[in-house]
UniProtKB/TrEMBL annotation:
It is found in: Cell membrane. GO terms for molecular function: ammonium channel activity. The chain crosses the membrane at residues 23-45, 57-79, 133-152, 164-185, 197-215, 227-247, 253-277, 289-308, 314-334, 355-380, 400-425. This is Ammonium transporter. One of its GO terms (biological process) is response to symbiotic fungus. The keyword Disulfide bond does not apply. It holds the Pfam family Ammonium_transp.
Length: 484
């Protein structure tokens, strides 16, 4: 039977191109992108106090855009290019058509046995480099946006604008190359299926470090910081949850069995974690919390990420039980007893939801990674979790060492970057801006409403009465005013 015309090779569809895999990879990339823009933009704008809605959304929006430009200029090839150092690739642009339309290759280095013979060839997915570059960008962007959750409500926006490209280049690319791009941890056989360490452990540790150096919110914000729109917060959380199918489903670089397992396990673990977190809220506080449910959902998604396509679904339930309880204990109990955790103002608790849950997921993967599933995907042969005997005990040790490297690198790199920025730009907003919020920082407010229980203040809202002094912050958008 003749080959259908749609599958005949053409200049735009070479023989190596699998249109199904390419379509899934671009779809997965879009799903991950939607987690950030608009997912986390909406979530951050809604979960914070009303006066910080615009600023929180803008920090996420800016990070998404700035990360993309830095990624294609130099970041992608520092994370996935040819080796420069055991933990870093050679930076170069990913912009030319010769690079972008050729068949994807990842990582750029072959894995060898100790005797020098080849164990696993470099992987060549059936789609072009352009699809891979964009897919990996969405991971870099969401890492920075998750990090931002630790410093909402007080970080100087100009300092944040300088921090984003510097942290992506000097911190994120190191973790990505070491674990995914052919670095020393990748060749050693550390398992990080889709970013439990590269994304979540790093964002949690870097966010906590940044929160320490930036300093706390004003006292009134720390004592009372209610979400300004719980229903919209749930819409952002929903985009985050559904987008995770692209997050973990796209990691195998093909629409294959590992991808299917990953999507199912991701949702199982998230649902289990949400239910456990909510049950603990009811048991200890007498009522379920919507914010708590969102936190539980997130810890489940984070925990399953290091091993989503490599563990059995019963293990995903176990991981969900642990991710719904251990981060709950660290946030609700240990946080109140630790002087360090009390001192550092981590606005959204990113340390607990991402660092603790990411570390937990990486270690549990070292226990539950199933040998048959590992053979479907991993470059290092005989990889398995400790519960399956053989070299599993060594695998758990590898997971622990890799976590220590990621923690150490992010502590040091984030500190150096922020101290360098502080030489030129204050890291924290001045107190007068912190008292007012969005109106002072951006000249804009999230809602064009007045009269929601507050007294009319002509110094803030302006007045037609010339006897009042005009507000110094009156240049921003105000919505439409109708005089009747």
């Amino acid at each position: 039977m003749a080959t259908p015309t749609a599958y005949l090779p053409t200049p735009a569809s070479p023989e190596w191109l699998n249109k199904g895999d390419n379509a899934w990879q671009m779809t997965a990339a879009t799903l991950v992108g939607l987690q950030s823009m608009p997912g986390l933009v909406i979530l951050y704008a809604s979960i914070v106090k009303k006066k910080w809605a615009v600023n929180s959304a803008f920090m996420a929006l800016y990070a998404f855009a700035a990360a993309l430009i830095c990624w294609v200029l130099v970041g992608y090839r520092m994370a996935f290019g040819e080796k420069l150092l055991p933990f870093w690739g050679k930076g170069a642009p990913a912009l030319g058509q010769k690079f972008l339309i050729k068949r994807a290759i990842v990582p750029a280095s072959t894995h060898h046995f100790k005797n020098g013979t080849i164990e696993t060839q470099t992987e060549e997915p059936f789609f072009p480099m352009a699809s891979l570059v964009y897919f990996q960008f969405t991971f870099a962007a969401i890492t920075l946006i998750l990090l931002a959750g630790s410093v909402l409500g007080r970080m100087n926006i100009k300092a944040w604008m300088a921090f984003v490209p510097l942290w992506l280049i000097f911190s994120y690319t190191v973790g990505a190359f070491s674990l995914w791009g052919g670095g020393f941890l990748y060749h050693w056989g550390v398992i990080d299926y889709s970013g439990g360490y590269v994304i979540h452990l790093s964002s949690g540790i870097a966010g906590f470090t940044a929160a320490y150096w930036v300093g706390p919110r004003v006292k009134s914000d720390r004592e009372r910081f209610p979400p300004n729109n719980v229903l919209l917060m749930l819409a952002g959380a929903g985009l985050l949850w559904m987008g995770w199918s692209g997050f973990n489903g796209g990691a195998p670089y093909a629409a294959n069995m590992a991808s299917s397992m990953a999507v199912l396990n991701t949702n199982i673990c998230a649902a289990t974690s949400l239910l456990v977190w909510t049950s603990l809220d009811v048991a200890f506080f007498g009522k379920p919390s919507v914010i708590g449910a969102v936190q539980g959902m997130m810890t489940g998604l984070v925990c399953i990420t290091p091993g989503a396509g490599l563990v059995q679904s019963w293990a995903a339930i176990v991981m969900g039980i642990l991710s719904g309880s251990i981060p709950w204990v660290s946030m609700m109990i240990l946080h109140k007893k630790s002087s360090l955790l009390q001192k550092v103002d981590d606005t959204l608790g990113v340390f607990h939801t991402h660092a603790v849950a990411g570390l937990l997921g990486g270690l549990l993967t070292g226990l539950f990674a199933e040998p048959a599933l590992c053979r479907l995907l991993l470059p290092v042969t005989n990889s398995r979790g400790a519960f399956y005997g053989g070299s599993g005990g060594v695998q758990f040790l590898k997971q622990l060492v890799a976590a220590l490297f990621v923690i150490g690198w992010n502590l040091v790199s984030t500190t150096i970057i922020l101290l360098a920025i502080q030489l030129f730009i204050p890291l924290r907003m001045p107190d007068e801006q912190l008292e007012i919020g969005d109106d002072a920082v951006h000249g804009e407010e999230a809602y064009a409403l007045w009269g929601d229980g507050e007294k009319y203040d002509p110094t803030r809202h302006g007045s037609l009465n010339t006897g009042h002094s005009p507000s110094p912050y009156v240049n921003g958008a105000r919505g439409v005013t109708i005089n009747l």
